[in-house]
Write a structure and sequence with these properties.
By secondary structure, the chain is mainly alpha-helical. The protein has 1 helix and no strands.
Length: 65
């Protein structure tokens, strides 16, 4: 009887399932970050403020020039 546990095709299913789970986790984390940022912006706007957008400043060099 041949041992089917070493067959590469028998590992393909679990590998695909693992990749799918990792992709869902990454997608969930990205979605959570986006929803959190949107919620913070909405909270700021609902409180009546008008300066809610983040300001991006140019980086400060170490030499001070």
């Amino acid at each position: 009887m041949p041992d089917e546990s070493n067959d590469p095709a028998s590992r393909r299913g679990p590998a695909i399932a693992l990749l799918l789970i990792v992709a869902l986790l990454v997608g969930g984390i990205l979605l959570q970050r986006h929803l959190r940022a949107t919620g913070q912006m909405e909270d700021c706007l609902m409180s009546g403020r008008t300066n809610c957008a983040p300001i991006s400043a140019p980086p400060i060099s170490a030499t001070g020039k």
